[in-house]
């Protein structure tokens, strides 16, 4: 039942009209990895954005993951005709585990994003070290690959 609910939510979220993927606007898509789920991005300027993720694990012990990051983008590192940028930034993570306490911590994200010229999508890959502080100090890593469609 949980899988059906998540699949329906993803379908609804991705089935709207799309106009372009640029360094502006709001995008919604999918991230595959740890966690797997929905990825959203809202550009605040040509180089900065807020990034949000909502993921769910269907493993033995179910868990839900929510994160929010503030991203800085740098396209000066790559000498290419493609629109590729390095991004990085600080964030927060909240994780709920079945039959366990919620965890709250800081995360840092480092990734690459490709925004094909004239396209409606961006494609990204990222890693994120996490330091949980509540209820106990614990280090972990997240990472994934994904894409987002951008709306008006």
Can you walk me through this structure?
- The structure is a single chain.
- This protein is 9% helix and 61% strand.
- By secondary structure, it is mainly β.
- The protein has one domain (2-151): Porin.
- It has 1 helix and 8 strands; from the N terminus they run H-E-E-E-E-E-E-E-E.
- A hairpin with a 3-residue loop joins strand 7 (121-134) and strand 8 (138-151).
- 26% of the residues are buried.
Provide a concise account of the structure shown:
This protein is mainly beta and 152 residues long. The chain has one helix at residues 2-14, and strands spanning 26-34, 37-43, 48-57, 63-74, 84-97, 103-114, 121-134, 138-151.
Q: What spatial form do the alpha-carbon principal axes imply?
A: elongated
Radius of gyration equals 16 Å
Low-confidence stretches: 1-21
Mean pLDDT: 84
Helix content: under 10%
Domain Outer membrane protein beta-barrel: 7-152
Organism: Ignavibacterium album
InterPro entries: Beta-barrel_OMP (IPR027385)
Signal peptide: 1-21
């Amino acid at each position: 039942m949980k899988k059906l609910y998540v699949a329906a939510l993803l379908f609804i979220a991705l089935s709207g009209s799309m106009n372009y993927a640029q360094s502006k606007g709001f995008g919604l898509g999918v991230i595959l990895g740890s966690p797997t789920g929905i990825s959203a991005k809202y550009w605040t300027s040509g180089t900065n954005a807020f990034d949000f993720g909502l993921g769910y694990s269907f493993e033995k012990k179910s868990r839900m993951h929510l994160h929010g990051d503030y991203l800085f983008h740098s396209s000066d590192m790559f000498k290419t005709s493609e629109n590729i940028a390095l991004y990085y930034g600080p964030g927060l993570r909240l994780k709920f585990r079945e039959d366990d306490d919620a965890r709250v911590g800081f995360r840092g994200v480092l990734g690459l994003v490709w925004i094909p010229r004239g396209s409606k999508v961006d494609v990204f890959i990222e890693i994120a070290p996490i330091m949980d502080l509540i209820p106990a100090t614990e280090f972990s890593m997240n990472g994934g690959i994904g894409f987002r469609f951008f709306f008006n």
